[in-house]
Design a protein that fits this description.
Helix content: over 70%
Shape: flat
Strand content: under 5%
Length: about 190
């Protein structure tokens, strides 16, 4: 038996779990292997009481979940805000990536132009330069469109808390307040 297998079974034995190998085979290996004997005696002597120092937060969590809004309005509000922030972050990354790619293409086009003008470049360089210039322009335009779109989306989608506050001010019923989809539809219709 390999020492790794024996030590895994011995660890399970110490933890009170079911061993993966029959105990008789593990004991036989333990009797013959001085390295595993040292490992087992060291493992048995370890103090695992430190693992129990973490406080039990289950009652606190359950109490907090019972005192929060029972219909899940707060959860929906939080999820809506998190999703919106995540989408804005992703859009920011896309815009930055597009800007970086357009700059890289522009730099490559300039480097190829210098090489071509020095006379040491092959005849196909102008085609590559034009392609890189077109790609740089397309990427720059895409970055600009994405950044404008991101700003427009952020302005068009008000936060869920704003929807709830507006509904409360307008005198809507509590069921309308909790149904954010209905509020958005109502706001877009009127």
């Amino acid at each position: 038996m390999r020492c790794e297998v024996a030590r895994e079974s011995l660890s399970a034995r110490i933890d009170g779990e079911r061993e993966s190998v029959p105990a008789a085979r593990v004991d036989e290996h333990l009797a013959q292997c001085p390295a595993c004997q040292r490992w087992y005696s060291t493992a048995q002597g370890m103090n695992f009481a430190a693992a129990d120092l973490a406080p039990d937060l289950s009652t606190t969590i359950l109490e907090a979940s019972q005192t929060s809004e029972p219909d899940g309005t707060q959860r929906r509000r939080n999820a809506d805000g998190i999703t919106r922030r995540r989408n804005a972050d992703e859009m920011s990354r896309v815009v930055v990536a597009l800007h970086a790619a357009s700059v890289a293409c522009a730099v490559a086009a300039v480097v190829l132009s210098v090489g071509y003008l020095s006379g040491s470049a092959p005849l196909w360089y102008p085609a590559v330069q034009i392609a890189l210039a077109v790609v740089a322009i397309v990427l720059a335009v895409a970055a600009r469109v994405s950044s404008r779109r991101r700003g427009r989306v952020a302005r068009q989608i008000p936060s869920a808390a704003t929807n709830v506050d507006d509904a409360a001010r307008d005198g809507d019923t509590a069921s309308d307040v909790t149904d954010l989809a209905a509020l958005r539809a109502k706001r877009n219709a009127g």
